[in-house]
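User: Some background: our group keeps a shared notebook of sequences we're curious about, and every so often someone picks one and asks for a predicted structure to add to the entry. Today it's my turn. The entry only has the sequence so far, pasted here. Could you supply the structure so I can complete it?
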Amino acid sequence: MTLKPLRSALYMPGSNARALEKAKTLPADVVILDLEDAVAPDQKAAARSQVAAAVAAGGFGAKQVVFRVNALDTPWGMDDLKAACEAGPDAVLLPKPNSGDDIARANDAMARAGARSKTRLWAMIETPLAILNLPGIAATAKHPGSRLDCFVLGTNDLVKETRAELDKDRTSALYWLSASVTAARAYGIQVLDGVYNAFKDAEGLRRECLQGRALGFDGKTLIHPDQIATANEIFAPAAEEVAMARKIIAAFDLPENKGKGVITLDGRMVELLHAEMARRTVAIADAIAAKG
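Assistant: Of course. Here's the predicted structure to add to the notebook entry:
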């Protein structure tokens, strides 16, 4: 099993050349080079060229590089998508899809633009309609030729559109968060939690990362480099978790346990589903270790 960790995904403004260069040196698992929210309308074209050149030039090491375009129905969206496909990032992040039809449209546009086979499609989940249509959006991941393989929660936009108020436990957002994770898992999609805006509040970030991991997210989107270490720590499997996972795998691999659906380990019953979970834990831990 080969997996890429998604513990930390840092947004970097595409209009800032220094930020794009700095992104190469940061320990985030993912850098999202942004042409949407972080870029003013009169800077969109210049930022597009700058981001495309940075992606094409490479130098980001083991990090995944994601190119966030503007929504396809904006004046910049289609040009952004074409530039992204030519540059060849690991993924294109699509803002504001409201339905499975929007994902299909983006898939078709990427194919027409000659996107490389490695370039996947990530989708922002950030509108009330997207929440209502989560099953249909996620189901497109199983369509022939689909590139969809990650959801990214846009909690700021959801708060704005619903007029919800978030407390420290994000009580009013729990439906969006859990529904997104459930839809993603139903169709084999990865999923990233939304940003924590108070980037100087280390305790609050830690609390929200712990909550996100408990809800089932693969990692967290970030707005400041100082948030990377916390996300990397919390969304990585703990040493004792990895040790137990290796023990479970080794136990199921014993000749006397071959073909069994349930075994006893350290006085408790362990099922094949636990072995599958253990293999994923080990794969993530190994991928993190390989990054150094």
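Suggested note for the entry: The chain has twelve helices and ten strands. The beta strands are 8-13, 30-34, 64-68, 91-94, 120-125, 148-153, 190-193, 219-222, 262-265, 268-271.
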